[in-house]
Amino acid sequence: METKNVTRQMLAFQKQAVNQFQSMWDLAQTQTASAVDQLMDQAAWIPEESRQPLENWRTLMNQERERFSAYVDQCFVIYEKMLVSPQAATPAKSKKTNDIK
Fold this sequence. Notes:
Layout: H1 2-42, H2 48-83
Helix pairs in contact: 1-2
């Protein structure tokens, strides 16, 4: 039983660490997007054809970050299901062999 508790605690720690990383990743992308927007507003000499790929890149990065987050969350759900003990578990019976004397 102790092993299951330790494993659950390790899984909870890893899940929290991944969530913190994803929050940091989200913040970094938001700040970078804000900086790029400010740069584009101040740089009137950049044509619209050059601005559109940056917008497409930002959209793609946001979509992929969300897809990755959903994938990781799904994996943690699977791991948590693996740790749930069945209610009606019965110990396996072993066959005793008779020693021939």
